[in-house]
Structures are given as C-alpha cells and as structure tokens.
Fold this sequence. Notes:
Blueprint: E1 2-8, H1 15-24, E2 29-34, H2 43-51, E3 57-60, H3 70-82, E4 86-89, E5 94-95, H4 99-129, E6 133-134, E7 140-141, H5 158-168, H6 180-187, H7 191-208
Parallel strand pairs: 1-2, 1-3, 3-4
Antiparallel strand pairs: 4-5, 6-7
Amino acid sequence: MKIGYARTSGEGQNLEQQIAALKAEGCDKVFSEILSSNRVICPALEDALAELGAGDSLVVWRLDRLGRRTVDLITFLQELQSREIYFQSLCEGLNSGTPLGKMFHGFIAALADNERDLSIERTLKVMASAKPRNTKSGNLKKQKIKPCKEDKSKELSRQDIEAALVLLSPSSSFGAKPTLSAVAEALNVSTNALSHRLKELELDKALSI
C-alpha cells in the first residue's frame, strides 16, 4: 500500500498540485495539511504513519515536506526503516524500494552515525569545560556550565539520545563513565527527561528484536 503526505505552510498555493502528483503516483490514500514550517506536531502526518505497516510506502512530493532540519529528516527516515516502511520522494526521485534507494538508506545511516559521533564530541567538550580547573594560586576552582537560553524541556534528537547511551555504557571507550546528571547537563535537558527518553529508546530497540 502507498500512502501519500502533502503539506504547505499556508503561504504556497501548491497543496492541490502535491495531492494530484501523489495520486498520479498511485497512492491509495493521501493525507494533507496546512501548517506553519516551525510546527513540530503534524496531525495529518501522524495519521499517515498510523496507516503504514511493514512493506508499505510513504510518498511525499518533496523532502522538505517532512521538515527543514537535516537531523530531523535523518531521524525520521531511520524510524521508517526500522519499521520496514519504504520511502519515496517524487521531486528528488528517491525510492528506498529500488537498489539506488537502498544506497540512499545506507548514506542516511552513515550521516546518522556521523551526527551521533558529533553529538558525543560536543557532549564531552561541555562536560570537560565543567570540570574543576587550576587557578593561578594553585587552588581548584569549580566552574559551572553556563546554561543555554533555551529551557531544559527541549526535544532531544535521536542522535543525542544514542550519544548519551554510548557515553553511559559500561563498555564506553571515552574514558571514565559520566553520571546521568552530567550528560543531561551537557545536553541542556533535565535528568528526568533524559532518563525517560533513554528508557523509551531502549524499549523501542527491545520491541524491534
């Protein structure tokens, strides 16, 4: 089964054009909505995803219909892949059900691994900056991490969560195992929020086995 998803920000006039293209591609159903580009929750997309099962395809008119940030797009495509759902983007000519599309998925996986490694590196740097440093007098002075302007209820990317899992793993090769609170502070989220997301990800992995 093919499910189409169309979206505009309200400024463009091409919603009907997207729907027509998706139907021409053979989509059995098309879900559409008009939302501002900075909206995180997309009800029609959630409805489309609820209809999809293993072996089905999600079809969009263009990649940016799923979001503007590359990290978010990588995470989204990874989740589709974990559910064995194919992905197709008409404008870019992408189809994960073809040999070329499988190469694209491999490229996405490589980008995700790279983003995770960068997240580990950033987290380690922030934690290192929070360690006590020598002052001129030879005494140790504890320095706190300067809080970011954003609050600690921000949404963590999948790569941030996986980076936290790597750092908190007993077999981590990045030195002494940090505390959960230290990693949460470095990622600028509350300890409870990080703990909850880690448990969610571990549960997802357990269910997929």
